[in-house]
Amino acid sequence: MNIYPSIIIIIILLVIMWAYAAISKLLSLAEFKEALATQVFPAWIGKILVWVLPISELGIVGLMLFQKTQLVGMYASFTLMLLFTLYVGGAVANLYQRRPCACGGLFGKLGWTRHFYVNIFFTLISIIGIILLESGK
């Protein structure tokens, strides 16, 4: 079976999602910084994440664009998506006293439950991408 078209589709979806997430954060940096300051974690973490998150997301995009680094990019995508999914899942399960969303653009408008499902989708396609890339070695 030729896995190449499947990998291309997965990479395109992930590149679009990560680029959109990073760019929407950077274009509304003041709002993103303010939203991070209201999260359930300590404020000093938010001050770090305001730059680490969009740079990491753009880094994943860069890794996905080159065949030699696609597998590393897929693992990075899976790791970051898993962390985001667990965090959003905690909000859906009402584990936090407050539930502010620091998500940019469209993701911030989805609501926690739909956002959780979208995150699960992107986490799963990252896993599928890893499996396909590993099997294609």
On the 0 to 100 scale, the average pLDDT is: 89
Element string (H = helix, E = strand): HHHHHH
Low-confidence stretches: none
How many domains, as an integer? 1
End-to-end separation? 14 Å
The count of helical stretches stands at 6
Let me know the largest β-sheet. Answer: none
Structural category:
mainly alpha
Q: What is the 3D form?
A: globular
Cα-based radius of gyration, to the nearest Å? 15 Å
What is the tally of beta strands? 0
Subcellular location: Membrane
Pfam family, one: MauE
GO cellular component, one term: membrane
Domain Methylamine utilisation protein MauE: 7-131
Summarize, please.
With 137 residues, the chain is mainly alpha-helical.
Based on the model shown, name its key terms:
137 residues, 6 helices, 0% strand, globular
What does the model show?
The chain is built from six helices and no strands. With 137 residues, the chain is an all-alpha fold. It has one domain. Helix 1 runs antiparallel to helix 3, helix 2 crosses helix 3 and helix 3 runs antiparallel to helix 4. The two termini are 14 Å apart.
Question: Which SSEs are present, and which pair or pack?
Answer:
Blueprint: H1 4-27, H2 29-37, H3 43-64, H4 70-92, H5 105-109, H6 112-135
Helix pairs in contact: 1-3, 1-6, 2-3, 3-4, 4-6
